[in-house]
Amino acid sequence: MTDTAAEDDKDPDIELFVKAGSDGESIGNCPFSQRLFMILWLKGVVFNVTTVDLKRKPADLHNLAPGTHPPFLTYEGEVRTDVNKIEEYLEEMLAPPKYPKLAAKNRESNTAGNDIFAKFSAYIKNTRAEANQALEKNLNKALSRLDEYLLSPLPEELQGGKDVPEGGSLRKYLDGDELTLADCNLLPKLHVVKVVAKKYRNYEIPTDLHGVWRYLGNAYSRDEFTNTCAADAEIELAYQDVAKRLGK
């Protein structure tokens, strides 16, 4: 192999900076950090991860990305701080044939479930007992729409006159049987909803939402998800002051 070929074959120099947990070292609760962590893992590129303790942010990081909270990333020494733009950049730079394409084929997969986190935030921050039921109903409705999408066959599942199973689509993830950018965005948030709502509202995602539960179960079987996720105790701790007690 020539030096040039070896150079071409080398992975770019990438370092991802994510929010640290309460011990200052482990992974902290941050769906955006996990989103980028998952993307890099799925791309199969070699990269470094640094957890950043927000209470004691080192001076060199202040200089690297002044005024910026994690996640951010350096790519060949260049700092990038906007999560959406980082996602686009990684998809463009880490492209086939060496790296897999992660964009969803179906546009609807990118917006499925995109209102769940806002409904959850309103529910968990509410202090008025009389409003609790309506806010919980709104969250259930948003989850039901996601469930409907996960159980509706994608166009490619219907190609060639294929029959759809009685229970609907059997795909594992939003856009098929492989994780895509859409999943990297939604799954970290969906997991936070599940953990935090149970802890502070004793809320369970309804058991009849088979598509949502199957989706979470498939995610929990993947290292790309479980090994980039903060521990449940970390997620609960992050919401300790956000989750409001309901008044009498």
What structural class is derived from the secondary structure elements?
alpha+beta
Could you report the average pLDDT, rounded to the nearest whole number?
Answer: 91
> What characterizes the major β-sheet?
4 strands, mixed
Shape type = flat
Rounded to an integer, what's the Rg over CA atoms? 20 Å
Query: How many alpha or pi helices?
Result: 11
The tally of beta strands, per DSSP, is: 4
Terminal residue distance: 73 Å
Strand order, sheet with most strands? 2-1-3-4
Q: Which H/E pattern describes the elements?
A: HEHEHEEHHHHHHHH
Explain what this protein looks like in three dimensions:
The chain has 248 residues and is an alpha+beta fold. It has helices at 3-9, 31-43, 59-64, 83-93, 107-111, 116-125, 129-151, 181-201, 210-220, 223-226, 232-238; strands at residues 14-19, 48-52, 72-75, 78-80. Strands 2-1-3-4 form a four-stranded mixed beta sheet. A hairpin with a 2-residue loop joins β3 and β4. The radius of gyration is 20 Å and the shape is flat. The model has no long low-confidence stretch (mean pLDDT 91).
